[in-house]
Amino acid sequence: MRVEAPIKVDRKTKRLAKRLTGGEIAVINHIDLDEVAANSLVEGKIKLVINAAPSISGRYPNKGPGILADKNIFIIDNVGEELFNELREDQIIEVIDGKIYSDGKLLGSGEVLDKNAVSKKIKEAYENLGIELDRFIDNTIDYAKKEKGLILGEVEIPKVKTDYKNKHVLIVVRGQDYKQDLSTIISYIEEMKPVLVGVDGGADALIEFGYTPDVIVGDMDSVSDEALRKTKEIVVHAYTDGRAPGLKRVQDLGLDAVVFPAPGTSEDIAMLTAYEYEAELIVAVGTHSNMIDFLEKGRPGMASTFLVRLKIGSKLIDAKGVNLLYRSRLKLKYIFALILTALFPILIVASFSPSVKQFIHLMQLKFRLLLQM
C-alpha cells in the first residue's frame, strides 16, 4: 500500500472535515472514531486516514473504522502525539505500508487497519462490552440522581420567541442516518409545517434540504455561520454554573441568543423546551438513544436523555431509522396504471371530435381489409 498526498490536520475531526476538498490524507487525533466523524471523512473523498490515537480502543465496538474500511479507506493507526504535532497543514507526505515519509525522511509509523484488522478489533471489543455496559449503567444511575431536577421543574426553562404551542416540532440532530431519515419524512414536513429545530450541525442538515431552521440549540461547536445567520432564534446550551463558551461565537457574529444552563445534552434541552412550551408532537431525527451512541459522543451515561424521554412520553416520536421502515418503490404496474388513468379522460373528450371519429372509422376499415387478406 502506497499513498502520496497533501494532508489536512486537526484535533477535531468534524472541524477538519469541513476543510477537505478531495484527494487529501486526513490526520486526526480521535480515539474510538465514531460513525458521524467517519461519514464526514468519507464525504470529504479522502485517500487515507492517519490517527494519532487508537481508532478502536477496545472499550466498545465503535462504528467509524468499519465505515472507512467498507469504502476501502485505510487507517494508519495510533501513530502517536509526537508525530501528530510534527505534521503541518498541506504538507505532502508519502505513506508506504504504515510508514510515513516526508522528502524521503521517515517521520514515524503506525498499524495499518484494513477490513480484516478492523473486523478483528471490533470482535475483541464486543467481548469487552459486558464490562463497559456495567460501568455505563452505574454512571447512568449516578447521573440520574444528580440530574433529576431536569424533569422535576428545578431547571428553569428560558423564555423564547418561538411559538411551540399546539404545533408539531421537528428536532434534527447530526446522528446516525440523519440524512436518510430526513429525506424519508419530507412529505411530513411539507404537510404539517412543523417548527424546525436544529441541534448544532442538525441546522445545516435542514438547510441542505432546503429548509430554514426556526431554532438552533447547542453549544455552537459544529454549526456553520450560515446557519446561525439564517435561523430565527438561537439557544446556547450552557453549563449548570452559567458558563456558555458558545455564546461568544454567536455574539462575534453580531447575533442575539438565549442562554439555557442545564445538565445533559443539547438535544435533551431542545426536546424539553418544546414540551414545556406545549408542543402538540415532537418528532426527533438523528438523536442519540442507546449506549453505543453515547459512548461515541464520549459520555459515560445517558441519564438526562432517559429522564427527558421519561417526562415527555407519548409526545415524542423518534424517527431514527425510519428510512429502513419505509422505502418507496415505484413499480411498473403503477406507472402503466397512471398513464392509462391520465389517457382515459383525454380519449373520452377526443371521441366527440368529428376528425377523431373519422380517424377511428378509417382505422376500422384498414383492420377489416387486413383481416380479409
TrEMBL record:
The keyword Kinase applies. Residues 320-371 form the SteA-like C-terminal domain. It comes from Romboutsia faecis. InterPro entries: Put_SteA-like, SteA-like_C, TPK_catalytic, TPK_catalytic_sf. The lineage of its organism: Bacteria, Bacillati, Bacillota, Clostridia, Peptostreptococcales. Keywords: ATP-binding, Kinase, Membrane, Nucleotide-binding, Transferase, Transmembrane, Transmembrane helix. Residues 193-233 form the Thiamin pyrophosphokinase catalytic domain. The chain crosses the membrane at residues 334-353. Pfam families: SteA-like_C, TPK_catalytic. SUPFAM superfamilies: Thiamin pyrophosphokinase, catalytic domain (SSF63999). This is SteA-like C-terminal domain-containing protein.
